[in-house]
Write a structure and sequence with these properties.
By secondary structure, this protein is an alpha/beta fold. The protein has twelve helices and eight strands. Strands 3-2-1-4-5-6-7-8 form an eight-stranded mixed sheet, sandwiched between helices. The mean pLDDT is about 95. It binds NADPH dihydro-nicotinamide-adenine-dinucleotide phosphate (NDP) and (2S)-3,4-dihydro-2H-pyrrole-2-carboxylic acid.
């Protein structure tokens, strides 16, 4: 429980919602401790107020920013410079800044703020909504133990937290930040494959979901190497062997590895486009 601290979200989209719903579900804060702000979409703020009971400051955004102890930056990378320049005169070095923005460095955030507030950069994922985010986190200048404790409490309410060096954040973005989309893509393909061989959409979806959930739970609960688990499914000359050979012939592994490399590269590019260069 985080008592007596006000949290203000700057940006009220998908990630902001995922984080605030985790905080409220786990009773880390009360709805009245959270304020949401965005650029212009008032209907979106109304929706969050209606669904979660949080506070939206539509007319005095800057006063909610001034009153906040913790600001969570949750806008797109292209919007962060303007957002920070708009609010900076209402911010102070004794506030904690937590960013979920892809690619943008802690040094850039500090630069745009123009003062010595502690900044923690994170990369969660949308599974935060069900409390299963894998969140990478790195610490900028001026961050003290009490800030790390607060950031941990917030992000552990939405899943696993992994503190690391800033150089790793692009890789974490390419792997686990974007990762849910890769899994959904695989699931889409498996459902289509099931339909190709005669199953209904509903049955293919149900069977695929249970298969993915079961496989993830096996990995997590047995701690086994995925290759070992894969081999246990694969009877010599059986059905799995034929399926896996087909995936290999389409260079499945190379495709997935290149996908993560490219997503990581894109995170670096976003960093170059929207971060100051040291
Ligand atoms: N979606 C994902 O899977 C993940 C996203 N991220 C990162 O989270 C960040 C947000 O992503 P997501 O929630 O998907 O994005 P959304 O597009 O859903 O939301 C972006 C929000 O930013 C607001 N915004 C834009 N400009 C400003 C501004 N100048 N001042 C205040 N608010 C502003 C928008 O307000 P308005 O609608 O009024 O324009 C909107 O509420 C991104 O940087 C992304 O890299 C990180 C991990 C996973
Ligand atoms: O696609 C993106 O850029 C964001 C960052 C990680 C997940 N979504």
């Amino acid at each position: 429980m985080i008592e007596n601290k006000k949290i203000c979200f700057v940006g009220a989209g998908a990630m902001a919602e995922a984080i605030l719903s985790g905080l409220l579900d786990h009773k880390i804060v009360k709805p009245g401790q959270i304020t949401v702000t965005n650029k212009e979409d008032r209907f979106r703020l109304d929706e969050l107020v209606y669904n979660f009971g949080v506070v939206a400051d539509r007319t005095q955004t800057y006063s909610s920013i001034q009153q906040a102890d913790i600001l969570i930056l949750a806008m797109k990378p292209k919007d962060i410079e303007k957002a920070l320049l708009d609010i900076r005169e209402w911010t102070r070095p004794d506030q904690l800044f937590l960013s979920v923005v892809a690619g943008v460095s802690t040094a850039t955030i500090s630069h745009f703020l123009g003062h010595a507030a502690p900044v923690i950069r994170t990369m969660p994922n949308t599974s935060a909504i069900v409390g299963l985010s894998a969140t990478g986190m790195c610490l900028g200048d001026h961050v003290r133990d009490e800030h790390v404790r607060l950031a941990r409490t917030i992000f552990e309410s939405i899943g696993l937290v992994f503190i690391t060096e800033e150089e790793k954040l692009d890789a974490i973005t390419g792997l686990s930040g974007s990762g849910p989309a890769y899994v959904y893509y695989l699931v889409e393909a498996m459902i289509k494959g099931g339909m190709d061989v005669g199953l209904s959409y509903e049955d293919a979806r149900k069977l695929t979901l249970q298969t993915v959930l079961g496989a993830a739970t096996m990995l997590s609960e047995t701690g086994e190497d995925p290759a070992v688990l894969r081999e246990k499914v694969t009877s010599p000359n059986g059905t799995t062997a034929r399926g896996l050979d087909t995936l290999r012939s389409y260079q499945f592994e190379q495709a997935v590895r290149e996908c993560i490399r490219q997503a990581t590269q894109r995170s670096k590019e976003l960093g170059q486009m929207f971060s100051i260069q040291k």
